[in-house]
Design goal:
Biased composition (Basic and acidic residues): 1-21
Protein name: UPF0746 protein DDB_G0280809
InterPro entries: SAP_dom (IPR003034), UPF0746_actin_org (IPR051904)
Biased composition (Low complexity): 392-413
Strand content: under 5%
Number of helices: 52
Family: Belongs to the UPF0746 family.
Helix content: 40-55%
Largest sheet: 3 strands, mixed
Strand order of the largest sheet: 8-13-9
């Protein structure tokens, strides 16, 4: 065997000599990489043969077998890469000669030859290379118009409002556009946002550190000198720790190769010792990391300051794997076992006040050390603890659920439900289910979860002062899940141990009635005891609401039925000494918003129709029924000939108003409109509030649906409606704006603006005097806007009943061909801008300067949400140039306002372009004096422009303006000092 290998090796060497050692040995007769790898994996190549091959290739032959193999494999792969590069170049030259020799075809077909290209990418390149299609598609992108990146910078709105915010920042950094990150505050927001520990985030931070450091290769004219990570190492360590960002801290330390002593010093100076003591899951991760690189000062030892936030670290809503990690991080971070051993050696443990906790904890740690995470299935690790302990996926208990005793062990129980049962044992396969617990290899999962919780609680009891033990009371859920007592006994413990607070009452009843699997008879007994005043000394009247809510929200028909029957019996036997309970009809109506399935509605309809208000004629209760059940509710109510009452002034949940209003319009035979006593003036105010609440949920189609099927008697005042949508935190309402201005031309707007009343004697001119009425014409497409109300989609046309034309006060039911709306000039221009109709704006500027640049209107256009305030740098510069070209006593104010906005937003390039123009810079950015009357602005006005850039922390722009504008030395020094104080 070895002799054969030698022959193959000799052949390799000869081949290498002939080919300048550039071959990878793939040809016939050679020891090829493929054959070499196959022989090794099959076990036919022994250690001695590997050494011979390595020596023949000039490689080291010492070390373990796998190490020698890796060297040889690396040799083959490096040869292959080199040959591929050489061969590719040779092949390209050969192909080029062939192409020159052959006649060129008239039309060349491009074919992708890569084998690993995704199918979608192939389509992309086909489109990319088709000039006609490419231009059509990319003409829809309005990056110059919006340019939200330079408009808002890297603040919390960008970070939290855009799912691709990291990619946006990366693109801007790579293109050396540092407008996206203007100051250290932006970077702190980034550190607070991007914490995921994956390759993408790690690469992002490495890019960030490389560009914002003293060694950066970024052009000096672009890099903001105020941001350099390596200039304040200790401060950035502090910020990353306090923002609990493990990924940023880890990459920061590695990138700048920070010594552990430097980290210790930074922590000692800038981090309070109690910071890590107030333990959270992520803080433990950072603490253990710093401990692993020997960077925790002795003053910050965790054990001496530790306290635990039970509500987050040990929540039963956490995944099982998080509980395991929390336990390990807590035990590892404190060196608990080492400290225990030291105490034991010193004999201190014998007199330790918490000795009993130490012994129990030590036993639990030994038991948990025997358990490996690999023993659990992925399903178990990624399930919540509550879900695993409840045996079933949290859901409402159905009427067919068996009332046999529920089990807390892994023994499978037979129920008549089809609910998904989780595996409660550790098993050797990946199955999520188990039907037996007799196998010795199976371990009860509930007991393991309990051990983890128990160990953490014992750890706390062992490490804290005995006087503070009452602070670390085990949470109520731990008691409910792990104590094997009857429900009535559990409730007594709630009263005694947890003082029976409202929160504990609510938690107890919700878990007992809805989540925890307990024998149904015990739940019945608890209901009976509460209603029979067994707990009268502890159960207060204010707790009744909590109790009723828990019963009705369970959506368990058996439970609700039993509750209502006992309550009815109590009311029949009621005496002055007993608790007075609400009548059944009121209770059902008050808690009907908890109904989440049709069966509950049917139950009330069949058994309590006459007692409750739910199905009465012209009732208001229907508004509380969940939208997903409203169609079934309508069917039940209509089946007995009753109608629902729609009273706009008694509506309490405006976020659901439009969906319900559209239903009433669609089914006027089932709903009765009660708009009596209202006046038309109030409708705009009411409708604005309803629109505001619906824009947050992006329900613009609901708004359009209503306006398409209700003939308004008076123009709709849209300015305040759209005003609220211009807030950066809200939806832009582009769909609604397109709907309004769909068929309104610039000529029709011009006509309306011409007749506007420009005369006013009011010095404090109000915007209400600058409004116009426009008419929207609805097309067939518009009037059939789809809306989703009950889970099924239908068009507005199909939803309408045959009964149309009903006058309901504010409007007349029925499809409308057009409607009028009132809009202010300021909002009009903003809407045109949003619709990318800037050419129309310029058209109106040219046609109606006396209207749009009227001095009385100037205050309107200094607001934040005006045309110039929302413009991107591209369009703001366009407006600035327009005012320069059309300069007069009116436009000069608008020009100055735009320059102030550009300064505040840090649009540095606008000012660079002005400076580069000798003509513009002389009268825009030079001080107007007696000797220089060609300049437009005084020293104070130009000073204010600079101050706005300083206040916005745009120091690059500030320095640019200070250096160029001819301020006095005193004014320059004052401005520079202001920059220093702002840093």
């Amino acid at each position: 065997m070895i002799s054969n290998k030698r022959k193959e090796i000799d052949t390799i060497n000869e081949h290498h000599e002939k080919n300048n050692d550039d071959s990878d040995g793939i040809d016939n007769g050679l020891l090829t990489y493929k054959k070499f790898k196959k022989d090794f994996e099959s076990g036919s190549t022994n250690y001695r043969e590997l050494q011979i091959i390595a020596k023949s290739l000039g490689l080291a032959s010492n070390g373990k077998k796998q190490l020698v193999y890796n060297r040889i494999e690396g040799y083959f792969l490096s040869k292959k890469v080199k040959n591929n590069l050489t061969n590719n170049e040779t092949n390209r030259q050969v192909e080029k000669k062939k192409e020159q020799q052959q006649p060129q075809p008239q039309e060349k077909q491009y074919i992708l030859t890569f084998k690993d290209v995704e199918p979608v990418e192939i389509y992309f390149w086909k489109i990319f290379r088709n000039i006609v299609i490419f231009k059509h598609i990319f003409s829809n992108f309005k990056s110059k118009q919006y340019s939200y990146y330079d408009l808002i910078g890297c603040d919390e709105i960008l970070l939290n409002g855009k799912s691709n915010s990291m990619e946006i920042i990366i693109d801007n950094i790579k293109s050396y556009n540092h407008q996206i990150i203007r100051n250290e505050s932006n970077i702190i927001d980034i550190i607070n946002k991007f914490k995921k520990n994956d390759e993408k985030t790690r690469s992002f931070y490495n890019l960030l550190f490389s560009r914002y450091s003293s060694t950066s290769t970024s052009p000096s004219t672009q890099l903001p000198s105020t941001i350099q990570f390596d200039g304040n190492i200790d401060i950035w360590i502090q910020r990353m720790i306090e923002n609990v960002n493990y990924t940023a801290l880890d990459q920061f330390i590695k990138f700048f190769k920070i010594d552990s002593e430097v980290i210790k010093k930074a922590i000692k100076i800038h981090i309070d010792p109690s910071f890590f003591g107030n333990t959270t899951y992520d803080k433990l991760k950072i603490y253990n990391y710093l401990k692993s690189i020997n960077s925790i000062p002795t003053s910050h030892t965790l054990l001496s300051t530790i306290s635990i936030n039970f509500s987050t670290l040990l929540s039963f809503d956490n995944k099982f794997k998080k509980l395991i990690k929390s336990y390990k991080r807590l035990i590892e971070s404190t060196n608990l076992q080492e400290q225990q051993e030291q105490l034991e050696k010193q004999g201190i443990i014998k007199i330790h006040p918490n000795k009993k906790y130490y012994e129990k904890l030590n036993q639990k740690i030994l038991e948990l050390n025997e358990i490996q995470t690999s023993q659990f299935t992925n399903y178990q690790l990624n399930s919540t603890i509550k879900k695993l302990l409840n045996h079933t996926t949290p859901t409402s208990t159905s009427t067919s659920t068996s009332t046999s005793t529920s089990t807390y062990t892994s023994t499978s129980t037979s129920t008549s439900t089809s609910l998904k049962t989780t595996n409660l044992t550790i098993i050797s396969t990946e199955s999520n289910y188990s039907s037996t617990n007799n196998n010795n290899n199976n371990i009860n999962l509930k007991e393991i979860i309990k051990k983890y919780y128990k160990s953490i609680y014992l750890f706390i009891y062992f490490t804290i002062n005995s006087a503070n033990k009452t602070i670390f009371r085990k949470p109520l859920l731990y008691y409910l899940y792990f104590k094997k007592e009857r429900v009535d006994k559990m409730y007594e413990h709630v009263i005694k141990k947890w003082n029976g607070s409202n929160f504990d009452h609510k938690l107890f009843f919700q878990r007992i009635f809805k989540d925890i699997k307990i024998e149904k008879n015990e739940k019945f007994e608890l209901i009976s005891n509460v209603l029979n005043n067994k707990y009268v000394k502890t159960f207060k009247l204010k707790d009744l609401h909590i109790f009723f809510e828990a019963v009705f929200s369970s959506n368990d028909i058996e439970l609700i039925d039993y509750f209502l029957k006992i309550l009815k019996q109590q009311q029949l036997n009621q005496t002055p000494e007993t608790t007075t309970f609400p009548v059944i009809g009121s209770l059902i109506s008050d808690y009907c918003h908890f109904i989440d399935k049709k069966e509950i509605l049917d139950f009330y309809f069949q058994n309590y129709r006459d007692e409750c208000l739910l199905f009465n004629d012209q009732n208001q209760t229907w508004k509380r029924i969940q939208l997903g059940l409203i169609e079934h509710y309508e069917y039940l109510t209509g089946s007995i000939g009753n109608r629902c009452n729609f009273d706009i002034f008694r509506w309490f949940d405006s976020s659901k108003f439009l969906d319900r209003l559209n239903r009433t319009i669609a089914k006027p035979l089932l709903y009765y409109f009660d708009f009596r006593g209202t006046i038309n003036f109030n409708f705009n105010f009411i409708f604005k509030g309803l629109i505001d609440s619906n824009t947050e949920d992006s329900k613009e189609n609901s708004i359009i649906h209503f306006l398409s099927n209700a003939q308004l008697k008076h123009p709709l005042y849209v300015s305040p409606i759209l005003e609220s949508s211009f807030n950066r935190y809200k939806s832009k309402m582009l769909t609604f704006i397109k709907f309004l201005f769909n068929n309104i031309s610039k000529e029709s707007i011009e006509t309306k603006l011409k007749v506007i009343n420009l005369k006013t004697d009011n010095k404090n001119f109000e915007e209400i005097n600058s409004e116009i009425v426009l008419t929207t014409t609805l097309t067939t497409t518009t009037t059939t806007t789809t809306t989703t109300t009950t889970g099924t989609t239908a068009t507005a046309t199909n939803l309408l009943s045959a009964k149309k034309g009903e006058d309901v006060g504010f409007f007349i039911i029925g499809q409308t061909e057009s409607f009028n709306f009132t809009v202010s000039i300021r909002i009009l221009l903003v809407c045109l801008y949003r619709l990318d109709r800037v050419d129309d704006i310029i058209y109106l500027f040219d046609k109606l300067p006396e209207v749009l640049f009227n001095p009385d209107y100037f205050s309107i256009f200094t607001k934040e949400h005006c045309l110039y305030g929302i413009s991107s740098s591209y369009y703001l510069e366009l407006f600035i140039n327009y005012f320069i070209e059309n300069l007069n006593n009116n436009t000069i104010n608008y020009l100055y306002n735009c320059l102030c906005i550009a300064s505040k937003k840090g649009y540095t390039q606008i000012f660079k372009n002005i400076i580069s123009s000798d003509h513009n810079s002389k009268y825009l950015l030079k001080i107007r004096t007696k000797s220089n009357q060609s300049s437009l602005f005084s020293s104070k006005l130009l000073n204010d422009i600079v101050v706005k850039s300083i206040n916005s922390l745009n120091f690059e722009l500030s320095n640019l303006l200070i250096d160029f504008i001819d301020f006095s030395e005193k004014d320059k020094n004052t401005l520079k000092m202001k920059i220093i104080k702002s840093k």
